[in-house]
Design brief:
Blueprint lengths: L13 E2 L4 H9 L2 H8 L2 E2 L5 H4 L11 E4 L15 E4 L2 H10 L10
Parallel strand pairs: 1-2, 3-4
């Protein structure tokens, strides 16, 4: 969905592969390059972003669409931030448009 496209201005798209093996596979297959060229920041594989403990923690008033599997107040950083859960395609579509977007609306 992101290949050859750019994420919306002012949007952060953080990608943290699930494991080192997945990170390496994505690197070999050119997926990390495609993500980076679209404007994504590729992080080391870790639980940091989804736990709000380092890279990618959201601040007060920020809105996040995440493909993680849990959501509760303060999970990804500030308790004054908003987190919505969606599929990876919903996250990608939303990064392209800068708003919560149904991936079926992206061509």
């Amino acid at each position: 969905m992101l290949r050859g496209k750019k994420i919306a201005k002012g949007i952060r798209l953080l990608v943290s592969p699930a494991s080192r093996e997945i990170w390496e596979r994505c690197a070999r297959e050119g997926i990390l390059t495609s993500l980076s060229e679209a404007g994504a920041t590729v992080l080391a594989s870790s639980c940091g972003a989804c736990l709000g403990i380092h890279s990618g923690a959201i601040g007060a008033g920020e809105v996040c669409v995440s493909a993680t599997n849990r959501n509760f107040i303060g999970r990804m950083g500030s308790k004054q931030g908003q987190v919505y859960l969606g599929s990876p395609l919903t996250v990608a579509a939303s990064a392209l448009t800068g708003r919560l977007t149904d991936p079926r609306d992206i061509s």
